[in-house]
Specification:
The longest helix has 12 residues. The chain is globular, with a radius of gyration of 17 Å. By secondary structure, the chain is α/β, with parallel strands linked by helices. The protein is built from 4 helices and 10 strands; from the N terminus they run ββαβαββαβαββββ. It binds NADP nicotinamide-adenine-dinucleotide phosphate. NADP nicotinamide-adenine-dinucleotide phosphate binds next to strand 2, strand 3, helix 2, strand 6 and helix 4. The site of NADP nicotinamide-adenine-dinucleotide phosphate (NAP) has 28 residues, from strand 2, strand 3, helix 2, strand 6 and helix 4.
């Protein structure tokens, strides 16, 4: 997810207007549209919490489009939510069972979109292989944290860092002890 420097992914009321901020960092890379497009092709399915889904629906209603293309998108919810497209499927229950028994056999690259509740659930259950954490050059003072109520420490391996001309810094961490970690 993308966070403010003080670690929030949305304001307390869920607004993400501050994502529009931009700066100029002369030494940074340019976010190449072709590269982003190629990268998105590597994602096989998306998983998101209901509140993130509701934000995505409100973006779409404002004419900002649907960010997840025609990829299968699994929405975690115990509620009855509008289903606006065939690629969306709802799930309620044990997330570890869902990911390990339903998603892993069918999809290679599973992208957890967020939000905070779901990313913490995912980490707590040991389901993540890596974390993509991007920081924007803004402090918003209060909001929804990147991980809600994680409840324990999780040591990470910093695998990659990129800084962009827009002032965004992208961090990629791997979970320690996972096969993808280079041996010490
Ligand atoms: N900055 C970014 O990059 C970024 C990225 C993603 C999201 N966001 C923002 O983050 C905010 C939402 O985050 P959030 O932490 O409040 O909510 P969230 O993680 O999107 O959704 C949490 C909700 O998902 C449902 N849920 C989670 N696990 C479940 C399970 N195992 N079974 C059934 N339902 C489950 C529950 O709602 P029910 O009541 O429906 O059951 C839960 O309250 C939004 O403002 C969004 O725009 C920002």
């Amino acid at each position: 997810m993308v966070a403010s420097l003080d670690g929030f992914i949305a304001r307390t009321d869920g607004r993400v207007d501050w994502l529009e901020t931009s700066d100029e960092f002369a030494g940074g890379d340019t976010m190449d549209a072709g590269f982003v497009e190629e990268f998105l092709k590597t994602i096989d399915c998306y998983v998101m919490g209901s509140r993130t889904y509701e934000t995505a629906l409100s973006f779409e209603a404002k004419g900002l489009g649907w960010s997840y293309g025609d990829k299968p998108t699994f929405v975690l919810t115990s509620r009855e939510l509008p289903r606006k497209r065939d690629t969306v499927e709802f799930y309620s229950g044990d997330l570890a069972q869902f990911v390990n028994e339903r998603l892993r056999p069918a999809f290679r690259s599973i992208w957890f979109v967020g939000g905070s509740v779901v990313s913490a659930e995912c980490l707590r259950l040991g389901l993540a292989d890596e974390i993509r954490y991007s920081i924007l050059p803004i402090v918003i003072g209060d909001g929804i944290p990147f991980f809600t109520k994680l409840g324990r420490d999780i040591a990470l391996h910093l695998a990659d860092v990129k800084a962009y001309k827009s002032g965004m810094v992208e961090l990629r961490y791997e979970m320690r002890g996972r096969p993808s970690e280079p041996s010490a």
